Amino acid sequence: xxxxxxxxxxxxxxxxxxxxxxxxxxxxxxxxxxxxxxxxxxxxxxxxxxxxxxxxxxxxxxxxxxxxxxxxxxxxxxxxxxxxxxxxxxxxxxxxxxxxxxxxxxxxxxxxxxxxxxxxxxxxxxxxxxxxxxxxxxxxxxxxxxxxxxxxxxxxxxxxxxxxxxxxxxxxxxxxxxxxxxxxxxxxxxxxxxxxxxxxxxxxxxxxxxxxxxxxxxxxxxxxxxxxxxxxxxxxxxxxxxxxxxxxxxxxxxxxxxxxxxxxxxxxxxxxxxxxxxxxxxxxxxxxxxxxxxxxxxxxxxxxxxxxxxxxxxxxxxxxxxxxxxxxxxxxxxxxxxxxxxxxxxxxxxxxxxxxxxxxxxxxxxxxxxxxxxxxxxxxxxxxxxxxxxxxxxxxx
Length: 397
Fold this sequence. Notes:
CATH superfamily of the largest domain: Type I PLP-dependent aspartate aminotransferase-like (Major domain)
Keywords: Aminotransferase, Pyridoxal phosphate, Transferase
CATH class of the largest domain: Alpha Beta
Pfam family, one: Aminotran_1_2
Low-confidence stretches: none
Protein name: 8-amino-7-oxononanoate synthase
Catalytic activity: 6-carboxyhexanoyl-[ACP] + L-alanine + H(+) = (8S)-8-amino-7-oxononanoate + holo-[ACP] + CO2
CATH architecture of the largest domain: 3-Layer(aba) Sandwich
Cofactor: pyridoxal 5'-phosphate
CATH topology of the largest domain: Aspartate Aminotransferase, domain 2
């Protein structure tokens, strides 16, 4: 007899890394004493791994909106949106998001992961989904749940995408999935090429804008707006846990598609509705994003400065104004050691290894926010310099 739980053993490398003191995950934050700061094990560190890009989770206006909604409506909804959990606050948020994104309709979900998982209702065993190699795990899970065939094209490689489209069954439904700005690298999707191929092969396009809504584009609508191709995207998914500073997600697109998802997406129908506090916080954040474009302007200027400093220091970083700065390391253990050196220097980053990134391509992800001060950026730069020297990362260091 086989015990289904027999597989529940962590690899030996887990304990080895723990014993070395370089295990980077599940580090609990005790307090957030100020913008861009966290307290871990009694130490104040610069938070350089957060996706709270515009610093709105700590904004007093966003917090007060959440508190007021909680006082008025409670901490939960008591049911799914389909049954008895819908609030007028949800409908207000959906209308506001539709207007902001320039879409016919929006469906708000309880998490960004659930927004992408809802796509499973649109695909089936006769369909093919062709996704960028770097798309988020929740998009892959949606394909698995839906039962469609999954093909992966090399990151932003339009020649490879075309070969996969050309080799596919012309009678099958085809869906191209991409992220607007990729969460692991900070790179932006090659939407002009995707749009051209989608038209040529009759494919639909889904863009996960978790990391670009609120940041890219003249109005903050994301990568499609920045590239002038919003009409090329059939469905756009977002999460509230990045630029909007709270929890939740949404799917935006044509009204008939959203109506269908409201009734057939299992991650919508069978999940408790978004708590009032989160819906109210997202509404307040949207107002700030629209009224204060200087936040994203400062964010991008700071990111360009930091990425340039890291590149000048010898790290294999391409200078860019994207708030996600990927610092390639390669080896998992070396990545953990670099993370620990930065941590000891007072900077809290994110260590990414497989399956978050392809095997052998471990990296340190640095996330810049609009509320990082010049002094905090200097601390990040100094920490990377000290870590480089102690680990002897480059021959000229």
